[in-house]
Amino acid sequence: MTSESDPISDIIAQLTKIARADGKITEEEEELLAEAQINLMTYDEKLDEALDDGVIDETEKDLLRGLKEQIIQGAWEMASLSDGISEDELNMLELLIKTVRNEG
User: Fold this and answer.
1) Please, what's the b/e burial string for 31-49 (b: 16 or more CB within 10 A of its CB; e: otherwise)?
2) How many CB atoms lie within 10 A of CB 14?
3) What span, in angstroms and rounded, lies between the C-alpha atoms of 79 and 10?
4) Is residue 99 a contact partner of residue 44, using CB atoms and an 8 Å limit?
């Protein structure tokens, strides 16, 4: 994405702040952060490709919608692998879902 700030870095910074809310970042939270960063970068690359010609066609829209859902689904699956979803993880997931559903 072309902008003054890097949206992915901003989202990851917000997620990291939530993960640190209790004074520590657990292994599960680290994994969730890594998963989110990789998937957001993939989405960003595909969005840049779609915008390359100045038009996002229906096929590209469908691909981008699918990637958004993959980001959310991947994050939920990652958080669900442990013995439960912690409050920090839940807050991270809520922010990620809100952000992804409102982006692009």
Assistant:
1) ebbebbbebbeebbebbee
2) 14
3) 21
4) no
Give the separation between CA 100 and CA 104, rounded to whole angstroms.
8
8 A C-beta contact, residue 36 and residue 12: yes
In the chain the first and final C-alpha atoms are separated, in Å, by: 10
| Integer CA distances (angstroms), 33 to 3, 51, 54, 88, in order | 22, 26, 31, 12
**How many residues are present in the chain?**
104
What digits encode the pLDDT tens for the residues 12-58?
A: 999 999 999 999 999 999 999 999 999 999 999 999 999 999 999 99
The per-residue pLDDT for range 52-99, each reduced to its tens digit, is: 999 999 999 999 999 999 999 999 998 888 778 889 999 999 999 999
Q: What is the pTM of this model?
A: 0.83
